[in-house]
Design goal:
single chain, alpha+beta, Elongation Factor Tu (Ef-tu), domain 3, 6-stranded antiparallel barrel, 3-stranded antiparallel sheet, 11 strands, 51% helix, UPF0194_transport
């Protein structure tokens, strides 16, 4: 009985001991943790700040592309909007061309060449007419006209002499007839002749007088006719021999008009030949003989004697870039590194067009184009056949 009561008292006492020990351990841990945190806080407040040793930026990195000096020129025809075809292509890829050199001939060349030759012949014809007008009539024409005048003068003299002789003869006959008529009138009064004899003499006078009047009228008509012909012949001679300013001006206008047609034909012909605007190299052929010129043009040219890098610098880095800064260019397409100098900084912010191989890279960056000239001739020769090559650029700052 006593043992059972002891057991009933000892069990509760054991549990309370465990609870008490656990509570004391928790309190002790909390106090220790608080003290430790206070110690660390005090230590942190008392420890002096150590300056950061972060690296200093010495270069601006950017992606870029190679291009010839002055960019790539896309050569096209002046009037390629009308479906113009290339007739002849006079260059091939890689050829060096001079400024003004004919690169291609269009299909409109030969018709326009024929039009030019025709216009040039018209100038020759008009010029010959002008020279003829300035020189006056031919010597043969003048001589022939003078001969006509001399013939008319001789004809007038001959006709005048003949008809005047006829008039003189008729005048003499008229005087004789009148004298006979007067004598017969006296004889008739004296009764020596009959009336019929008197009438015969009177009729003779009237007949001769009428013949005289007709001869004089014929003489006057002949003189007037020949004088009129002579006057016209003399006027024609003057017209032939005279060089009138109005005639010269009229023909001169024809010459100037023909020359203007030649200039127009030459201008049209020039549009049928495509010439290089620069001294450079043919980078690519886009249109071949027989093909219609498209929006890509005939060929692409570039001044590859001097190469440039167009680096796309982030807008946040552009303030660090200055003209004259040196740059290092690298690429897997050539060995070693290239050295260049910043020569131009763009004035417009645009979208990034050159990207690396990182598919997670941001493709919506804002960049500014910076042009870098390749310095050495050896470096230029190393990359002058690599237009549009993507490169990595470090601009020293």
């Amino acid at each position: 009985m006593v043992n059972k009561q002891r057991q009933s008292f000892t069990k509760p006492l054991g549990w309370w001991s465990i609870i008490l020990v656990t509570a004391m351990a928790i309190v002790t841990g909390a106090v220790s943790l608080y003290s430790l945190s206070r110690f660390h806080l005090a230590s942190k407040l008392q420890t002096p700040t150590v300056p950061s040793n972060s690296p200093i930026m010495t270069a601006v990195a950017a992606l870029g592309r190679l291009e010839p000096q002055g960019e790539v020129i896309r050569l096209s025809a002046p009037d390629s909007q009308g479906g113009v075809r290339v007739a002849q292509l006079l260059v091939k890829k890689g050829d060096w061309v001079r400024q003004g050199q004919v690169v291609a001939i269009l299909d409109s060349y030969y018709p326009r060449l024929a039009a030019l030759e025709k216009a040039q012949k018209q100038v020759s014809v008009a010029q010959a007419s002008l020279n003829q007008v300035k020189a006056g009539a031919k010597a043969g024409d003048i001589s022939a006209q003078k001969a006509t005048i001399a013939r008319l003068e001789a004809e007038m003299r001959g006709e005048s002499a003949a008809q005047q002789a006829t008039i003189a003869r008729l005048e003499a006959e008229l005087r004789n007839a009148e004298s006979e008529n007067q004598r017969y009138q006296q004889l008739y009064k004296n009764g020596a002749i009959s009336a019929s004899d008197l009438d015969t003499k009177r009729l003779r006078v009237e007949t001769v007088r009428q013949q005289l009047n007709e001869a004089e009228a014929s003489f006057n008509r002949t003189v007037e006719t020949i004088q009129k012909q002579l006057k016209e012949a003399i006027a024609k001679l003057k017209s032939i021999a005279e060089v009138r300013p109005t005639d010269v001006q009229a023909v001169q206008t024809s010459v100037e008009s023909a020359k203007a047609s030649v200039k127009q034909a030459q201008a049209d012909l020039n549009l049928s030949s495509v010439r290089s605007p620069l001294n450079g190299q043919v980078l690519k052929i886009n249109t071949w003989p027989g093909e219609i010129i498209s929006s890509m043009g005939i060929a692409e040219l570039g001044r590859t004697q001097q190469m440039y890098i167009v680096a796309e610098v982030y807008e946040t880095d552009i303030k660090k870039v200055r003209l004259g800064q040196s740059a290092t260019i690298t690429s897997d397409a050539f060995s070693g590194t290239l050295r260049g100098t910043v020569t131009d900084i763009g004035l417009r912010v645009g979208k990034q067009n050159i990207f690396n191989n990182n598919i997670q890279a941001d493709t919506d960056n804002k960049v500014i184009d910076v042009k870098i000239r390749i310095d050495s001739q050896a470096d230029n020769q190393q990359v002058n056949a690599l237009t549009d090559l993507q490169v990595q650029v470090l601009i020293d700052i």
